[in-house]
Amino acid sequence: MAVFRHFRHCTFWKLIVILVLATIMLQTWHMMMLFQLESKVRYKSSNGEIQNEVFPGKNDTSQGQRQETGGSIEYLMKKMWEKVRAANVFDQSGSYVVIDNILEGSNIEENRTQDVTIVTQCSSNHLHHLLTLSKIWNGPISVSVFTHDQDTQFAIYTIAYLIACVKNVSKQVLFHIAIPVQNLPIPFDLHDTTVSCNDRTDTVQSKSEHLNYGVEGVEYPNNLLRNIAIHAAKTSFVFIIDIDTLPSPDLRVSFNVFIKRHKQFIDSSSPIAFVVPSFEVNSKVDISSIHTKTDLKKVWSDSKVRPFYFELCWKCQRYTDYEQWGQLPDFDFLEIGYFVDWEDPWEPFFIAKKSDLPLYDERFRQYGFNRISQVCESYVKGFRFAVLNNAFLLHHEFKVPKNFHAKKEEEQNRNRQLFREFKKELKLKYPMSDRSC
């Protein structure tokens, strides 16, 4: 009987081991099937580089379109899909596949270190904002795109369209992609793509099936996306904003002039955040008509513009001191208006040196405390906060509670607890700092 029990015990554990190994093999096979699908139409050139038969060539206008980046939408989609299939880089948690520079604009200048890159992130249904943002900013932009499942086809198409057909995007924008491991892309037939640059640009404004935070079982990794875009920025300074906001039209040029006048800010060992006051614009107002601070103050006095998050979380923005900012003398150049002592829970948008900036804590996902955690750490690290006199940031439409997804409060409560732990960790990370938040 003892021998039988021993045999039965060994057999049980052997079965457990076999089941575990089988599970691992099935998961591995699943990933290989998704990421190693062969393209239906491709060949190798004489130098061994993979090309595509539908690539029309740099000057080919057979589709009635001018190719700004040297490739058709179909070719660019195939190029991106190959990168997606071959992706093998994951985030620190192992939860997301990360693809840097999935399609770099062909004319992006390499030697612009003394400049500012807009850093932003979004899901595919917000990529159309780049049409206006790239035109207003007219400089480097680094954007991380979150996609998953069947949404990947729309994301890849939209990026390809923007690079092939929009000159500002092809010259200025670096695209990156993050995909949840549990929701890998669903293969699609690239031959179904028949669009060309002759199509109206509103073809990229089709809304994807889900909101950023509204996909059941999929967490939107906003801080991971921000970090990916920061890493890829090639300039000394970065300006981290939401993709549905627009900076004042002359901000990039005037900031670069400002920095040349104040070279001490480049070499200073004391980090500084140049705060850009942010506003919300009534949907009935043409946001592109607001060119200057004078324009802004006029619609502000008519209550068609208000401070950002005015209705949702006024205390999160009020320390910018909008009243003082509005009363600053009207200079025709950019300068520091005043300094602000950071107070919890202030979360301003600001420009900062990339080398000074602490990265975002990637544990924060979905809604709540993702941006303020980084602002909080910047303060503890020793940042000073200087509000710029003429710069501003405009958000499309007023922010109101009814426009948020159903689980907003649940996510915010979860992240609030994480933020409490995060603040305790900062005391260990910066033991010599006399600041806390």
UniProtKB/TrEMBL annotation:
<keyword id="KW-0472">Membrane</keyword>
<dbReference type="GO" id="GO:0000139">
    <property type="term" value="C:Golgi membrane"/>
</dbReference>
<keyword id="KW-1133">Transmembrane helix</keyword>
<keyword id="KW-0328">Glycosyltransferase</keyword>
<keyword id="KW-0735">Signal-anchor</keyword>
<keyword id="KW-0808">Transferase</keyword>
<dbReference type="GO" id="GO:0015020">
    <property type="term" value="F:glucuronosyltransferase activity"/>
</dbReference>
<keyword id="KW-0464">Manganese</keyword>
<feature type="transmembrane region" description="Helical">
    <location>
        <begin position="12"/>
        <end position="35"/>
    </location>
</feature>
<dbReference type="InterPro" id="IPR029044">
    <property type="entry name" value="Nucleotide-diphossugar_trans"/>
</dbReference>
<comment type="similarity">
    <text>Belongs to the glycosyltransferase 49 family.</text>
</comment>
<comment type="pathway">
    <text>Protein modification; protein glycosylation.</text>
</comment>
<protein>
    <recommendedName>
        <fullName>Beta-1,4-glucuronyltransferase 1</fullName>
    </recommendedName>
</protein>
<keyword id="KW-0325">Glycoprotein</keyword>
<dbReference type="GO" id="GO:0046872">
    <property type="term" value="F:metal ion binding"/>
</dbReference>
<keyword id="KW-0479">Metal-binding</keyword>
<dbReference type="GO" id="GO:0035269">
    <property type="term" value="P:protein O-linked glycosylation via mannose"/>
</dbReference>
<dbReference type="Pfam" id="PF13896">
    <property type="entry name" value="Glyco_transf_49"/>
</dbReference>
<dbReference type="InterPro" id="IPR043189">
    <property type="entry name" value="B4GAT1"/>
</dbReference>
<keyword id="KW-0333">Golgi apparatus</keyword>
<keyword id="KW-0812">Transmembrane</keyword>
